[in-house]
Amino acid sequence: MKIELAGHQLELLPDRAVWWPGQEAVLLADVHLGKDQVFRRQGLAVPVGVLEQDLDRLELLIEETGAKRLIILGDLIHAPPHPDDDWPDRIGQWRAELDHIEIDLVLGNHDRDLSTWLHQWQIDGHETLLELDGMLLMHEWRPRLPAPGLSGHLHPGARLKTRREQLRLPAYLLDSSPGREHLVLPAFGRFTGLMDEVEFPWDRRFVTTGQRVLPLP
Amino acid sequence: MSAPQSVPQAGSIEALFKRRGWPVFDFQREAWAAFAAGESGLIHAPTGSGKTLAAWGGPLAECLNAPPNRLSYLWITPLRALANDTTEQLNRPLAALGLDWRVATRTGDTSASERRRISKQPPPALVTTPESLSLMLSYADSRQRLGRLRGVVVDEWHELLGSKRGVLLELALARLRAINPGLPVWGLSATLGNVDEARTALLGPTNPGRLIAGRMPREIQVDTLLPPSIERFPWAGRTGLPQLPGVLNYLQAARSTLLFTNTRSQAELWFQAIQAVVPWPDRVLLHHGSIDRKARAEAEERLRRGELKCVVATSSLDLGVDFSPVDQVLQIGSPKGIARLIQRAGRSGHQPGQTSRLVCVPTHALEILEVAAARRRIDERRVEARRPLAGSLDVAAQHLVTRALGGGFTEAEALAELRDTHAFAELSDLEWRWLLEFITRGGPALKAYPGFQKVKVDGGVFHVPNRRIASLHRMSVGTITADGHLQVRFMKGRSLGQIEERFITRLKPGERFVFAGRLLTLAKVKDMTAYVRAASGGKAAVPRWSGGRLPLSTLLADAVLEMMDEANGNRLDPDLKPIAELLELQKERSALPAPDRLLIEQIESREGHHLYAFPFAGRLAHEGLAALLAWRLGREAPQSYSMTVNDYGIELVGDAPFELDESRCRVLLSPLHLEPDLLRALNAAEMARHRFRDIARIAGLVFQGYPGRGKQMRQIQASSGLMFDMLSEHDPDNLLLTLARREVLESEMELSRIRATLERARSQTLVLRQPGRLSPLAFPLWADRLRSRVSSEDFERRVERMLATLEPGS
User: Fold this and answer.
1) Residues of B in contact with A190 (CB under 8 A)
2) Which one of A5, A141, B706, B810 is least enclosed by Cβ atoms within 10 Å?
3) Residue B134 in contact with residue B172, Cβ under 8 Å?
4) CB atoms closer than 10 angstroms to residue B588
């Protein structure tokens, strides 16, 4: 689904990421790697596997788009790694296989105590935002931004309701008001939930079924 | 019946009761004697017939002989709202008997300070709930605290039977039996079709116990309120409000009336309607399970004092303690089951043993048929069964963690306890291993759950070393009762009751709705509370609670078919005279179904081609059957159908003619491959996902903590749907997923009923008709506009279709 945001051509991809051809970059948000491990430590039996799945999906995205750059709009991880955790090393391995691309992370509220790891993973961390070609890339949107941009954090979902059934799908939220155009991305990680009610003044929404991105009327 | 042996001190009990003017019956004496002899058992009778005293007299007599100095008796009640009333009732004879102690209460509502007091100085007897009992079993000193019991009473056992709370209680009782050898356990239950099974479920498969029948009312009389004009009486419909004038006549004529409805929304509607019309609106009250306890207690008290003319109620009044009898009982719509009818009728009449009377108010023509059928079965004294659940591994998992916390367990002793319950008597070794692996490792495959910690094994003892995990578990122990309820409170603080979250989330602040008999405006929702203000006038939404409508029981359905068969053979039951013409019309236009005749109609309309089938298997089973038929039809010629069901039958609507002949019908109705076909026909995956919500919570896969309580809490918030997806993708053999699928088939679809229906169809004559116009039986299906579509379409198509017909405000 191709859209235009403040003069920039963007493509909303079915696997919860945005392709920005002008920058040859893939943008996504809220991966929450390692979340399953946090749950297991608290006695909640989540099986391992979602980390691999998310890493595979990332790899596929980069392959299919031919991207030279991956920009993560916050919450790459769910919580700072425990000394016994395996997954940080796994990320390192995955990163090593993609050494031809640049990876940036705009830090989100879950990305804490990460500087050593970011260094090891060869990922550039950015404190609050990353400005690129006039667009503000950040983790969490706030009102009255000085320029158009993209963000995550809200884990937006849209509830489709007909007379007999109901369905919730991950959604892209677009505010196309001139001067403050902004796109909120759905959470990329598979082990994340959906929030129906979010504080964001969207005027258009797009849902993804996993295969296609469809506009909501 | 042999004369009960005389019991030491029972004489004083009996003397006391006589002095108080409380009657003493033989079945009570039998129960007291059995208790004194150390026996266990089940006492069954309609509510309010002296069952409480039958169970309490034994312990009382024992106390007169041997004063208790530890926690000696547990009285388990299913509703914590009733617990205080029960405690009061149990306390009443104590002073008069010269006993200087009092029964205490311990439930989720009990304050922390009271709980500490109970812990420090255990009362001799405690009224509690299954959940609180589980909580007590989770403390390290549970064995000391609960190891000197002299008796346990389980009240309203029929209410717990057939639910997971009942399974949890079975497990708790097995533990109590293990640490109190020879413990007498007594159950109190309403009339049931399967009392033997109910007793086994309560006492465990190998423990003997008595069955004691309480008093049955001498006679139960069921009258029907017929509408003044049967021609204008609708063939379909649900509220029944057109019968209001007739109902008002009955209300005026009696001093006090209980008006029962089948759903809470109906109760709210009827309450509003009555209040609006009668000259004594302040003497009408509303009573249902979601209403605040104080308001309910007030209703009960005012009724007792004779201040109320009419109480509009739902099943909240089916349960419970001595609710003073009223002059008459009215039932709006069909009671859908005989047991319910008997319970409700029993609320009328002031003298014990007197005739119980109930007036049924049909809401549409065919309900007249159901009421007549109910009358027939009551005369035969036949009542439905409530089947206990078996194999609920989620409950077992929760209980095992509780045991691990509460002093620890060894494999052998825990397995023995589990197999000493009806629910897990057949637990396989595979399932047992899976359970142990689930609680210690998260799952069977060693690699699939690295870092998981919950229960640890040290020297053969299973225990929970981590305090945080222990406290998380205790916070969620027993969260089996449905979640997602919000408190409803006035802005100024007074609570009105509880309402389902699902309803409130559909409202926006400022919108009006009816609840607890009042017109309210939603002000805001905060912290699991909906704050409201009184509203005046204007359109309002009436909340529809889920789980409101029970399907027609097999017992009643079969009686209905019998009566239609008789009508066919010109032996019309006199009760059915009002609808003789309607039945004649059905016969003429199409045919009348019967126990040995399955009716199938096909007609064409502007909407498309309609297929009607009338198996009379109840709404739930029909939902599965409809999906099955549609799927089997769709296999031959791909098409999607619209389907509607009710208690009598099924409607399928498609674009092409059905063109069914007898042999094709036989194939469609074949019981072969029922389960695999059904799984494919239903949107089984999605239904299982929905079903998984309870399973995930019970088994400790999701934690329903207090939202926003600290960073650590927030980090582990996840929905059950998400868990379901994770397991489906990364541990598909997980037995909890299997459980979800099985529950979809058995509990939601009534698989056994579907199977029985198809088996029966094999020997039935298939009556195929093309009536040309809608028949009276088909009409209610056609009129019910809630149609669902068969989901054999793929996900993409489904989303696109939904996008095309979205409701406003999506």
Assistant:
1) 725-726
2) B706
3) yes
4) 11
Closest-CA residue of chain B to A14: B796
Say how far apart CA A118 and CA B441 lie, in whole Å.
31
- Residue in chain A lying closest to B464 (CA): A43
Q: Answer whether A45 touches B (CB < 8 Å).
A: yes
Strand order in B220-224's β-sheet? B220-224, B356-361, B328-332, B257-260, B310-313, B284-287
CA distance B77 to B339: 20
CA distance A43 to chain B (A): 5
User: In a 3-state reduction of DSSP, which class is residue B331?
Assistant: strand
Alpha carbons within 13 angstroms on the beta-carbon side of residue B94 total 18
**What is the reported pLDDT for B2?**
41
Is the CB of A39 less than 8 angstroms away from the CB of B718?
A: yes
| Beta strands A25-28 and A69-72, pairing class | parallel
Q: Please give the helix or strand (H or E) that residue B539 lies within, else none.
A: none
- Is the pTM value of this prediction over 0.95? no
Express each pLDDT in B453-478 by its tens digit.
899 999 999 999 999 899 889 888 86
Give the 3-state secondary structure of B703-749. CCCCCCCHHHHHHCCCCHHHHHHHHHHHCCCCHHHHHHHHHHHHHHC
Is the Cβ pair B800, A214 closer than 8 Å? yes
- Is the CB of A43 less than 8 angstroms away from the CB of B448? no
Show the tokens assigned to B519.
């017109």
The type of residue at B39 is E
Whether the predicted pLDDT of B596 surpasses 90: yes
Q: How far apart (Å, rounded) are the C-alpha atoms in residues B482 and B744?
A: 17
How far lies A68's CA from each of A7, A85, A136, in Å? 21, 30, 19
Which residues are CB-neighbours of B150 under 8 A, at least 6 positions away?
A: B59, B62, B68, B72, B73, B183, B184
pLDDT tens digits for B247-294?
A: 999 999 888 899 998 887 888 889 989 998 999 999 998 887 666 767
Query: Would you call A47 and B731 a contact, using CB atoms and an 8 Å cutoff?
Result: yes
A8 phi and psi angles, rounded to 5 deg: -95, 135
Cβ distance B451 to A44 less than 8 Å, yes or no, reads: no
> What is the distance of C-alpha B124 from the center of its chain?
32
Check CB contact of A178 with chain B, cutoff 8 Å. Answer: no
- Among A39, A82, A164, select the one facing B716 at the smallest CB separation: A39
